[in-house]
Amino acid sequence: MQVQIFSLGMFQTNCFLLIDEVSKEAVVIDPGQDPDALLSAIEEQGLKVTGIWLTHAHLDHIAGVGEVKAATGAPILVHEIEKDWMTDPMLNGSGRYPEYFEPITGPAADQFVAAGDLLKLGDQSFEVRFTPGHTPGHVVYVTEGMVFAGDTLFNNGIGRTDMPGGSTAQLIKSIREQLYTLPGDTVVFCGHGPETTIGHERKHNWAVNDQTDLLR
Ligand SMILES: [Zn+2]
Ligand SMILES: [Zn+2]
Question: Domain Metallo-beta-lactamase spans what residues (predicted)?
Answer without folding.
Answer: 12-192
